[in-house]
From TrEMBL:
HAMAP family: NDH1_NuoA. NDH-1 is composed of 14 different subunits. Subunits NuoA, H, J, K, L, M, N constitute the membrane sector of the complex. The chain crosses the membrane at residues 12-31, 65-86, 92-115. It is found in: Cell membrane; Membrane. It is an enzyme of class 7 (translocase). Gene3D superfamilies: NADH:ubiquinone/plastoquinone oxidoreductase, chain 3. It catalyses: a quinone + NADH + 5 H(+)(in) = a quinol + NAD(+) + 4 H(+)(out). GO terms for cellular component: NADH dehydrogenase complex; plasma membrane. GO terms for molecular function: NADH dehydrogenase (quinone) (non-electrogenic) activity; NADH dehydrogenase (ubiquinone) activity; quinone binding. NDH-1 shuttles electrons from NADH, via FMN and iron-sulfur (Fe-S) centers, to quinones in the respiratory chain. The immediate electron acceptor for the enzyme in this species is believed to be a menaquinone. Couples the redox reaction to proton translocation (for every two electrons transferred, four hydrogen ions are translocated across the cytoplasmic membrane), and thus conserves the redox energy in a proton gradient. Keywords: Cell membrane, Membrane, NAD, Quinone, Translocase, Transmembrane, Transmembrane helix, Transport. It is a multi-pass membrane protein. This is NADH-quinone oxidoreductase subunit A.
Length: 124
């Protein structure tokens, strides 16, 4: 195996990187130069599905929304670990089964803790 790389071996990668960067820079400059730059109140207002903007966007939001979102991501990622296990179930044998039972026990213990803390209760 040849591990003596010369700088010329990396030339195609460098050329492609330079061309990609140049394309991005040129595209941004050209669009800013030739694009329209008319400013008006209607154009600068945020557009939300055709609904008129009402109130301030900086109103406080309950932390429960964020907790539910974080918990969803957490448990969603945990479920992702079950797919490779299910695909390789036969190959992993009894040790793989015991490991998944332990994993599920820890996952359910965390879920039980969340329920006991009342994170998912909305009527408060």
């Amino acid at each position: 195996m040849n591990t003596n790389y010369l700088p010329s071996d990396f030339l195609p990668i460098i050329v492609q990187f330079v061309l990609a960067a140049a394309f991005i820079v040129v595209t941004m400059i050209v669009t800013h130069r030739i694009g329209p730059s008319r400013k008006s109140k209607a154009k600068d207002d945020p557009f939300e599905c055709g609904i008129e903007v009402v109130g301030n966007a900086r109103t406080p939001i309950s932390v429960k929304y964020f907790l539910v979102a974080i918990l969803f991501v957490l448990f969603d990622v945990e479920v992702i670990f079950m797919y490779p296990w299910a695909v390789n179930f036969k190959k992993l044998g009894m040790l793989g089964f015991i490991e998944m039972v332990l994993f599920m026990a820890l996952l359910l213990a965390g879920f039980y803790y969340i329920l006991r803390k009342g994170v998912l209760k909305w009527e408060e």
